[in-house]
Amino acid sequence: MDNDRHRTRNLYIGLAVAFLLLIVQLFRLQLIDSSFKVSAQNNALYYQTRYPARGLILDRNGKVLVGNKNTYDILVTPHYVKDFDTTELCTVFGIDREYVRAKFKEYRKYRSRIGYRTVTFLSQVSPEKYSRFVESAHRFPEFRGIPRTTRMYPYNAGGNLLGYVTEVDQDFLDRHPDYDMGDYTGRTGLEQTCEPMLRGEKGYSIYLRDANNRIQSSYRDGEFDKPAVQGKDVVSTIDAELQNYGEALMKNKVGSVIAIEPSTGEILSMVSSPGIDVSILGEINKHYSSIASDPFTPMFNRAVMSPQPPGSVFKLVNALIGLQEDVVSTTTQYPCRNGYYAPGIHVGCHHHKSPVDFTEAIMASCNSYFCYLFRSLLENPAYGSEAEALDRWHDYVQSFGFGTKLGSDFPSEIPGFVPTSSTYDRVYGKGGWKALSVISLSIGQGELGCTPLHLANLAATIANRGYYYIPHIVRQHENDSIDSIFRQRHYTLVDTCYFEDVIEGMYQAVNAPAGSGATARIAAVDSLDICGKTGTAENPHGDEHAVFVCFAPKENPRIAVAVYMENAGFGATWAAPVASLMVEKYLNGEIASDRRWLEQRMLDANLLHKVPASPDYEPPKKDR
Hints:
The protein is α+β, with helices and mostly antiparallel strands. The strands form 6 sheets. Strands 2, 3, 4, 5 and 10 form a 5-stranded mixed sheet that branches. Helix 14 (315-324) packs across helix 16 (367-378).
């Protein structure tokens, strides 16, 4: 009996406690916490998205490369739209009637999907047009505007570098569920690379609406509104003035220019020409068809996407491998009788003294010398076969970054190609080829393919005497640090002690006196000690490509440059002047008076009449 009374008492106590807890919870929900009430009232509330301003993109010196300007999106709820004056609406926004008809035809077609939702009728309306709309907004009660920002560009340069922002489509939404229809995202260039930092965080404002979906007032004076969080500013490695200068030099030319700071791997300039004019980046969709049909492919970023033969600048790599493998020394001499001759083989060369030693071969860009050198590499008795020697050569070349994606933070980088023994086994059959079969590799032709970024990285690697930092385009700033991989040194398989010998040849190529046979004397600038190498790469689609790589000063280099100018002919004629002007502009801030004629010649030159090379690399059909 006592046990029954004890259980009954415990039951009453439990019920009392539960009832008390229920009362407390109801009191909290009704009088203290209104969040559930807000949720319950969702049918009577309208959430208007607050879009954040994207972060700015700055150059290395704090100058604005990409800023923001105020615009408006015009929204409409198609379900509630009644008859309105189409002509007046078109006049207000400067659009034609066909646009309005097409929009409402689309709304009717997808009315079940749209339902009672509000959709975007017009994007990026200027403040001037929006002011006209506000004056007559009472005539269009179902339309309303929300503030947005769009991009603006203080420098008319770097369209491919900066990239563009566009509204997300369904395909993008399927892959990125954290975005919503009406959001914008960076699609190319820095806008894409830095999207997580630049995009910011959306907010919202809550409004009361009546049964006819008309907004009445702000809910609870904005107590539950969420402010938008502006995107973070991004500091790039780019030098705005140098980028602008490079764009000017490459106007009316096909190719690219890349400048790197060797001591950090920071990209100072990245020019792809012809490129996208920044004036249309904000409205890229309107111009997309004309851009896509342009025969010069302005959306194709040649700096990181165009795998072309490197030409004679690749002799620098073979020279270093030859020293490392001990098949040549700085005193080794080879003859050149207007080229290299072997049974069934002739690789032509321009006129210069003969024989030449190692330094003179680099200075004069002697094809014959490097054919002898390369043949010695592959016929080296230290290896069991020429196939084994070629694969070792491949490993050396790859250690310079060729044939791989360098790992830059810039999107769309491609690896290029460096052949191995299996490449030629497939062509000739195993054991069916010899050193002379692939002799074109000695002068940077044959099956080699690399991007201008690879060549700029080569210049930086030689400037550093044997190592490189992965080229990158975002700089460490504020509390944001760059990935540690961009601070790691990547050493080549060639001992650092051999680089000075190659650098001396590069120095002589630019600074040797007249009559010496130096191929790049046009690139010389007083007191800058530019070290460079010319190249002329064969092209089966038209005229030869002009190539030049350099760095300066010789000691403690501050800039390394690669210029690849398609269909422009000799490297010394066009590529070397552009590269040297870039170096002079960066290091001195201005062009010396005795070189302004050269600057003007580059600025005025129009090489677009030459047929542009295909972006898709094909091996040349003959060797030189």
